[in-house]
Amino acid sequence: MKLPKIVLLGPPGAGKGTQGSLISEYFGIAHITTGNALRINRDLETELGTPGSFIDRGELVPDSIVNEIVEVEIKKASGFVLDGYPRNRKQAEYLSTISEIDKIIYLDVASEELIKRLSGRRVCSSCGENYHIEFRPPKKNGKCDLCSSELVQRSDDQEETILNRLRVFSEHTEPVLEYYINREGFVRIEGRDNPEDVWESIRKIFEEG
Q: Is 57 a catalytic residue?
């Protein structure tokens, strides 16, 4: 069976990481995330410098470097699911020159639901275990089940920051959606459901061809 090459799109909090992992496991394909790819290749020499040099300065890694790194990872894999790439139209256009894509899956979740998901996240200040005040609450309010340390809300999970993240997504990533929406293989999935139901919807797409 030919292993699929998949682009997974969706706003922050849509569940791309969860579904990307499930797709990767189901097909036995690479789960390529921009963050992991940059970490793996942080010392890769490019014309503009290494990815690590930009990361260490807290700067965005230029598109040309991200493209080169993703290409390196794609060439290692017979099949893959891309999660977090492409982030803008130029990256999408570049991707079309280096690989055929079988499916483009967009996880569609309303902004109100995304805010609820992201603002409810809590993380242990000591061991880093993740919780959610509604979907995965700790046994004891405000305390980690594993080490009893204080649970905190990350700064990027506060509502004002979430709204900014969604605005950035709208400005930069929605043009990617427009680029793919009328292409063969594009599928829109209702991402509001629980992760198991979302995965069932995705699995059926491939079973039905």
A: no
